[in-house]
Amino acid sequence: MATKKVKIILFVEGDNDTSNGDLRQGFEKLLLNTKKLEGKLPRIKLGGGKKQTIDAFLNNRISEERAMLVDLDGNESLKEKDLKTYGLEKHENEIFYMIQEMESWFLSQSSVLDEFYGLDNNKKKISEKLPKRNPMEIPSPDKELEKLTINTKKKMYHKVRHGVELLKLLDAKKLMQDFPDFKNLVDYLAGI
After folding, report:
1. Which end of the chain has fewer CB atoms surrounding its CB within 10 Å, N or C?
2. Domain tally for the chain?
3. Is residue 72 part of a domain?
4. Tens digit of pLDDT for each residue in 89-117?
5. Which of 22, 33, 18 is nearest to 164 (CA)?
6. What is the pLDDT of residue 3?
7. Which residue in 50, 69, 47 sits closest to 60, CA to CA?
C-alpha cells in the first residue's frame, strides 16, 4: 500500500493562540499573494517562541519536506551565528529569517500602515513619522511600530491582532524584492 505524501510543513515563529487573531491565516494569505504558491501552499505550523519553533522543526516526524521561518532579532550579518547558536547549520537551506522581525516587513510598506492605521491624533500619517533607514536595520521594529501607532484610532500595534491584518495587506511581490530571505523562502516552497 502506497503512503500518501504529506505536503511541506512551514514552521513559523508566532503565537498559535487565536483569541486575538490567527497568524496562520495572515501568513497563508501573504504566501498566496506571491502567486508562486498557488496549489503549493505549505501547511503552516505556528511554534510559539523562537526556541519552541526550532524544537518543533528539529523534532518534526510528520513530513521530511519542511522549512522554518523565524525572527533573526538582528541584522542579516547574524545569520551564521544564529544557525550555529541553535545547531541548525546542516539545515541552513531550510531556514529563513524575518530580518529583524516580522514588523520590519510592515515598516517597509508605509502605504499599508497608512491604510490600516489612518491618521494619528496629530493628523499625521505613519509614513510621515517613519525612520529614514532600511527597515532591516531598525533594531526592535516591533517597539518602533508600537511607538508610531500609539496615538491612532486602532491604538498601539498589537503583534497578533494587528499583525494578522497587516500580513494580509502586504504587497508580497514588493516584499520579495526588499527582503531576500522572504524571496528565498517562496522560491524554496515553490520548488518542492
Report:
1. N
2. 1
3. yes
4. 999 999 999 999 999 999 999 999 999 99
5. 22
6. 47
7. 47
